[in-house]
Write a structure and sequence with these properties.
- The structure is a single chain.
- By secondary structure, the protein is α+β, with helices and mostly antiparallel strands.
- Helices cover 44% and strands 13% of the residues.
- The chain is built from 13 helices and eleven strands.
- The longest helix is centred in the middle third of the chain and has 15 residues.
- The protein is elongated and about 80 Å long.
- The N terminus is likely disordered.
């Protein structure tokens, strides 16, 4: 139980500016903020969430201000901010090659895809156990194999043409030309629509809306009657990038897949993460 002490009971000296309570040094919230360079808002949130994060209870009050045992608080904060062996979203991007927008999308869809919760959240940054995350992602990819090969690379806010939307969905452009006038279930409205001097309507779609359509289409149906999924013998079959990857693999047989993916992304655009998948398919299927 916290005890209210009058100002004179707080022991402060010139040589030891830290107040003491019951013989132990204590720090107020303001002093914690000054010492650890943390905002008052952040410190208040840490304390509100103490049932989840283990933040120590206040040792008492001085001048009606809460104070915490300095040594106990420091020990807790060291544990709280220790992210050794954990990975942030940026760390996951650097290691896996997946785009930040893709990782953010996977997290937003966690209710449907069972994305793991972070092991820790320090400030506004979430951290995951890489073994737990990798195990989940392997399972996630396995569950996606029956779906069309949706390309989740790129920025969700990019505006793309209908033909590019088809490529993102792993479909032939001709198979979705009627979508704007005969939209299947969940098909998004264009983000931008213009008419040329000759009367042709040009539509641009938000890439993130196409990803959302792909997820909803596969979960609940939505292909128009008479349409079928593109038949592919293997990943990226028919994609011109596969031939580029095959040529690179043939010319550099000893180069790692990661290095080749980086080189191809630099030469032809796109992300190294996407190219790594294409290189893998090129090595598994060097010829048609």
């Amino acid at each position: 139980m916290m005890s209210e002490l009058p100002p004179q009971d707080a022991q402060i000296t010139e040589n030891s500016p830290m107040a003491t309570l019951h013989g132990r040094p204590v720090l107020s919230r303001k002093e914690l903020g000054d010492r650890y360079e943390l905002s008052n808002t952040h410190l208040e949130r840490l304390y509100r969430e103490r049932d989840l994060n283990g933040h120590p209870e206040a040792a008492g009050t001085i001048n009606r201000a809460l104070v915490w045992d300095a040594a106990d608080w420091h020990e807790w904060y060291e544990r709280h901010t220790d992210v050794t062996a954990l990975e942030s979203r940026a760390d996951l991007q650097a290691r896996t090659g997946l785009g930040l927008s893709t990782l953010a999308l996977l997290w937003r869809e966690r209710e449907s895809n069972q994305h793991p919760q972070p092991e820790k959240t320090v400030g506004n940054t979430m951290y995951w156990n890489p073994k737990t995350w990798d195990a989940w992602y392997e399972s996630y990819k396995t569950n996606q194999q029956w779906r069309t090969d949706v390309d989740l690379s790129g920025n969700a806010d990019d505006l793309i043409s209908l033909s590019e939307a088809a490529r993102v969905l792993g479909m032939e452009p001709t198979s979705i030309t009627k979508y704007p006038v005969r939209p299947p279930k969940h098909w998004p409205a264009p983000a931008e629509e213009t008419t040329t001097d000759k009367g042709f309507v040009k539509r641009k779609y938000r890439r993130g809306d196409i990803w959302t359509y792909a997820e909803r289409r596969e979960r609940g149906g939505g292909r128009p009657a008479g349409t079928t999924k593109t038949d592919r013998r293997y990943p990226y079959d028919g994609d011109p990038r596969l031939d580029q990857a095959r040529a690179a693999v043939k010319a550099n047989p000893a180069t790692s897949a990661a290095q080749l993916a980086g080189q191809l992304a630099h030469e032809h655009g796109g992300t190294a993460g996407t190219w790594s998948h294409i290189v893998r398919s090129a090595r598994q299927h060097p010829e048609d």
